[in-house]
Amino acid sequence: MTNYLPALLALFALGAQAAEPAKPLAPAAKPAQPAQPAAPGAGVKYVQAASGNSLSFTFQQLDAASTGQFKTFATTLIYDEKNPAAGSLDVKVTIGSLDTQDGERDEALKSADLFDAAKIPTATYIARSLARNASGGLEAVGKLTLRGVSKDLRLPLTIKPTANGLELSGQTAIKRLDYGVGQGEWKSTESVGDEVKIQYKVALVRAK
């Protein structure tokens, strides 16, 4: 008698294999994403050095040029030569530190009718970007707040590298009456002129 057992076992094996569910295909590999360009840096932060700084002003008094300086002020600059628009400049000036080499005149300048130093002890300049002007020079684009009055002011800047950091310098002119520096009899420009020239040179070191 023919032995059908091996054939039956083979048929059962084939049926079991056919009953197994198909294995899912492995997901296709995602294409490599292009590398994103690095965001431009915000620049290097510099702060005012302990020495080598000057902030002076010149005005006309009785048709003669008079000068003075602020002995106490602080400067912070964020600067990237290749991306000046990302930079910023912050300056804080202590009004009571003004010195014109004349004590009586200093007290008059600090009085309520002029700088009002007792009530408004600080002046600030805050710029949140730097820009090139039409001639290629660098300017800070910000606001000067003096005697509590804020006005737009583009501040010319010359920035030079030094052994320890940077040197920032420049000059500009403002109208004192635009900021209310001159109340009562001091509103007149007969004895004290309206225009005030400001000169600045600041030594900056990299912030730690």
Indicate the radius of gyration in whole angstroms: 36 Å
Can you write the helix and strand succession as a string? HEEEEEEHEEEEE
Instruction: Tell me the helix content.
Output: 10-25%
Q: How far apart are the termini?
A: 100 Å
Describe the structure.
There is one protein chain. The chain is mainly beta and 208 residues long. The chain has helices at residues 5-19, 103-110, and strands at 44-48, 54-61, 64-70, 73-79, 88-94, 98-99, 122-132, 138-146, 149-161, 165-175, 192-206. An eight-stranded antiparallel beta barrel has the order 1-4-5-7-8-9-10-11. A hairpin with a 3-residue loop joins strand 9 and strand 10. The termini are far apart.
Give a brief outline of the structure.
The protein has 208 residues and is mainly beta. It is built from 2 helices and 11 strands. The protein is globular and about 50 Å long.
What key attributes describe this structure?
11% helix; 8-stranded antiparallel barrel; mainly beta; globular; 208 residues; single chain
